[in-house]
Amino acid sequence: MLFSSAQGTAVMDLTTAETIGTVSACTVTPTPARVAGLRLRTRGRGHHTLDWKDVRSFGPDAVAVEEAGRIRDEKDIGPGDPAHAAHDPLGKPVLTETGLCKGTVVDVEFDARSGRVVHLLTTEQRIPGGELLGVGGYAVVVTARP
Amino acid sequence: MTVYMRASEIIKKPVVTLAGEAIGQVKDLVFDSSTGSIRCFTLAGRGLLAGPLHRALLWDNVHGLGPDAVMVRADSALEEDDTAARPGDGDRTGGDVLGVALTTCGGRRLGDITDAVVAMGRAPVVAGYEISTAEQRRVLLPVAGPVTVSDERVLVPDETARYEAADLGTFEEAAENLRGSLRRAPKEG
């Protein structure tokens, strides 16, 4: 599914059946390319992050979490953590490892069951997840196709 | 296909790690006066008001060079300081190829070097020079074969003069033709 269609999806707590927040962004990590975490918009200020491994199921209408305690405040996450907001690929330029810009990331196509990133969609092309080398604060880096 | 760019165009390009973090931007190029190629880059921090970074990036540690960024494997690709950018004790004075005369082995001065032409990609190399001729024309000349460099002149084979290119678009063809002609007529001795 496309990440743009998952934005705004409610995140529900399976123990209380309450809504904790809504999905606002995702973070992506390479080798293999997969969604590492979800950024949530919660009530009140600041952002919270949910690690992908704590997602029980990613349904079409709601994301299920075992318990609300799994949600972490973004302030407690260091930049080295794959779930840190710096690893959000949306809106970042895509650079090949030879320094060529291939457009800006506009969407992420991922498998809702495994979290595997199938494609990165840029303003210019679809880049297979297998070509992803890194997602950082400045750019998304992919291998250079011969 | 090899893509070429002028060395001066590398200035201001961001230096990006394979993890996608920008760790600086290219401030200046340091040429190696003994080989005529580029020895290292000096870097500045990112942003308008950022000062110099005082950490050099050796040419050999560049992972890939492209029109949009200089790629390095990781932050550790940078030197701890910028001593590599300063002329060492063993170096001759000068330390720059710019402004030096490009001369053929036959003794003809082709012009003064104003810029270097770099082949981009995974193994970037200096593939030629931009020179300003006696008639104030700017032309690009590929280099191949034996090249000797001093702080007065860069010596190139006589054939080089016949393969000048007017712009980067025709430079590849000129470089191909020069290499072809040097292969056909191998040097004696």
UniProtKB/TrEMBL annotation, chain A:
Pfam family, one: PRC
All copies of domain PRC-barrel, residue ranges: 84-125
Name listed for the protein in its UniProt record: PRC-barrel domain-containing protein
Biological classification of the source: Bacteria, Bacillati, Actinomycetota, Actinomycetes, Kitasatosporales
TrEMBL record, chain B:
Family matches, as InterPro entries: PRC-brl_dom, PRC_barrel-like_sf
A Pfam family it matches: PRC
SUPFAM superfamilies for the chain: PRC-barrel domain (SSF50346)
Domain PRC-barrel: 5-76
Record-given protein name: PRC-barrel domain protein
Protein source organism: Streptomyces malaysiense
